[in-house]
From TrEMBL:
<keyword id="KW-0472">Membrane</keyword>
<feature type="transmembrane region" description="Helical">
    <location>
        <begin position="314"/>
        <end position="332"/>
    </location>
</feature>
<protein>
    <submittedName>
        <fullName>Uncharacterized membrane protein YkvI</fullName>
    </submittedName>
</protein>
<feature type="transmembrane region" description="Helical">
    <location>
        <begin position="287"/>
        <end position="308"/>
    </location>
</feature>
<feature type="transmembrane region" description="Helical">
    <location>
        <begin position="7"/>
        <end position="23"/>
    </location>
</feature>
<feature type="transmembrane region" description="Helical">
    <location>
        <begin position="35"/>
        <end position="59"/>
    </location>
</feature>
<feature type="transmembrane region" description="Helical">
    <location>
        <begin position="108"/>
        <end position="126"/>
    </location>
</feature>
<keyword id="KW-1133">Transmembrane helix</keyword>
<feature type="transmembrane region" description="Helical">
    <location>
        <begin position="203"/>
        <end position="228"/>
    </location>
</feature>
<keyword id="KW-0812">Transmembrane</keyword>
<feature type="transmembrane region" description="Helical">
    <location>
        <begin position="176"/>
        <end position="194"/>
    </location>
</feature>
<feature type="transmembrane region" description="Helical">
    <location>
        <begin position="79"/>
        <end position="96"/>
    </location>
</feature>
<feature type="transmembrane region" description="Helical">
    <location>
        <begin position="248"/>
        <end position="275"/>
    </location>
</feature>
<dbReference type="InterPro" id="IPR038728">
    <property type="entry name" value="YkvI-like"/>
</dbReference>
<feature type="transmembrane region" description="Helical">
    <location>
        <begin position="138"/>
        <end position="156"/>
    </location>
</feature>
Length: 340
């Protein structure tokens, strides 16, 4: 049970990046008539976690590539391996842009948030990931708890209906690209822990627990955003539409937590890129980091909400094949075992 709870933290931390925590990712895929879509996402997510963790456990993996090869074959695994690299680069400039959007909501210039993020990214490069990982372990539970409390208070205070249009669920298909968007980074993270999983019970505790947490938070977030949908046009970060009217202390507290979620996501992406790019060049990690950040900065001019609106659905479509192979894996394995 304790081992399973540890993996729940890892899985939820992988999912709740700045795009999710800001509400922009939720609103981009769900919105009105999406209750069934969120239920389907939760079910597919639980199955995906069970399949990936089981393969990882059986292969005793230390990195994700053997899991990816088992799921899609070596040829497609190489394609998606590069896809992970592109995804990390995308996350980097989306997070830099998100920093600008977060600072802008506090009535400070957008470019100030961008510069602040770049300076702090450059400052952390020489120190590695250890300190940031420790901070992340502390901040993410605070962000999740804070987010849940804000949503519950908002729903209670605004008398938000828990069920919107029970018989109108036309947006159910959005569950597929939303799940597939998150499945490749999920494989990249939990596909690397097979050697540390002790029993199969951990797999089921981690998968079901994380699926339920994310399903409930996604649903609460979605019905809250529906309630303020007429205001979302004015906000790059939908969470601030929900926080509108809250005491300034709560607004500031959640803004700081969200900014740190953005920062840690950016750092994780940057160090993943540095580790990979260094394999091809003999430069120091400092030089590689500066070049990667310089390459990312021009993309931040597009804006946080626009980047998510275009890039997240695109990644969702590209990753559908991986999601399909994960969901079909138990059936294919059983069929192959029957032939043997």
């Amino acid at each position: 049970m304790l081992g399973g709870l540890k993996w729940i933290g890892l899985i939820v931390a992988t999912m709740i990046g700045a795009g999710y925590a800001s509400g922009r990712e939720i609103w981009e895929f769900f919105g009105h008539e999406s209750g069934l879509a969120i239920l389907l996402f939760m079910m597919m997510f639980i199955i995906s976690c069970i399949v990936v963790l089981t393969i990882s456990y059986e292969l005793k993996t230390e990195h994700y590539l053997p899991v990816l090869q088992t799921l899609v074959g070596k040829k497609f695994a190489n394609f998606y391996d590069w896809g992970v690299l592109l995804y990390l680069f995308t996350m980097l400039f989306v997070m830099i842009s998100g920093s600008g959007a977060t600072v802008h909501i506090l009535e400070l210039p957008y470019f100030l948030g961008v510069i602040l993020m770049i300076v702090l990214l450059l400052a952390v490069i020489p120190y590695g990931m250890d300190g940031i990982v420790s901070i992340n372990r502390f901040l993410l539970p605070m962000l999740i708890i804070g987010l849940a409390v804000v949503l519950i208070i908002f729903i209670y205070r605004e008398n938000v209906p828990y069920i919107y249009n029970l018989y109108e669920q036309s947006n159910w298909a959005s569950a597929i690209p939303f799940t597939s968007l998150n499945v490749v980074p999920l494989v990249a993270v939990i596909g690397a822990i097979g050697k540390e999983i002790k029993t199969k019970k951990e797999i089921y505790v981690a998968s079901i627990g994380s699926g339920l947490i994310l399903g409930v938070i996604s649903y609460l977030y979605n019905i809250s955003l529906i309630h303020v949908s007429d205001q979302l046009f004015f906000y790059e970060i939908p969470l601030f539409a929900i926080l509108n009217g809250y005491p300034i202390q709560m607004f500031f507290f959640m803004s700081v937590l969200l900014w740190f979620a953005i920062y840690t996501t950016a750092i994780t992406s940057l160090f993943g890129l540095i580790a990979r790019v260094k394999e091809y060049f003999k430069w120091s990690k400092g030089v590689v980091g500066v070049l990667i950040i310089c390459a990312a900065v021009p993309f931040t001019l597009v804006g946080f909400s626009n980047l998510i609106s275009y890039l997240y659905p695109l990644y969702g479509l590209i990753n559908i094949y991986v999601l399909a192979m994960i969901l079909l894996f138990p059936i294919i394995r059983r069929a192959n075992q029957g032939k043997i």
